[in-house]
Amino acid sequence: MLKPSLLLAAAVLASGAQAASTYREFSYTGFFHEESGQFRPNASIYGYFDSEDLNGDGVLERSEVTSFVLNSQQYVGGCGPEVFMCGLFEFSYTPGGALDFHTASSTDPWGEGVAGGHAISGVEVKEHAYWPGGSASYTLRWTGNTVFHMTPVPEPATYGTLALGLGVLALAARRRSRAWSQGAASGRHASAMIAL
């Protein structure tokens, strides 16, 4: 039967594994550049997000994302001082599967000019700017050669929970070892008394 200290350690480890927020970095490399009409193998976009599978269904959804950054722009919980509006409108990720997202951002449309962009995973990433007398755009389109890479990185809190659980296990092992040593010493003492 497991001792209470071991049960406590197991509970701490299990709760940390289930409730921890997970930070993941991602990138896509290799896009068709619309404006030049060429495939660019080194063209890339990158980002990261924090999420927690609150309902435990194994699929991360928009409501479970607390931070989403794409190409240095934050889309959840505040856009930044230069951005008028931004948002993460769609999101879905199943670990080991595809990442689906739709973002958009824009500067103040009432100023001298406006800049912004959007990203729809699997379709395109587009940045654009309009000003009196001109405009510019930069568009990357997904192809069959676009490579997706995802790197899960545990949050520091997860490491802390793991360390706490391992510490409790080490303490339990030390107590067990001390109790065994004391029991063995008592047994030797009793044997010596019987021999007398």
TrEMBL record:
| Record InterPro entries | EF_Hand_1_Ca_BS, Ice-binding_C
Q: Return the Pfam families for the record.
A: PEP-CTERM (PF07589)
Which residues constitute the signal peptide according to the record? 1-19
Question: Which organism does this sequence originate in?
Answer: Massilia antarctica
Q: Domain Ice-binding protein C-terminal, which positions?
A: 152-176
Keyword list (alphabetical) reads: Signal
Superkingdom assignment: Bacteria
- Identification of the protein by name: PEP-CTERM sorting domain-containing protein
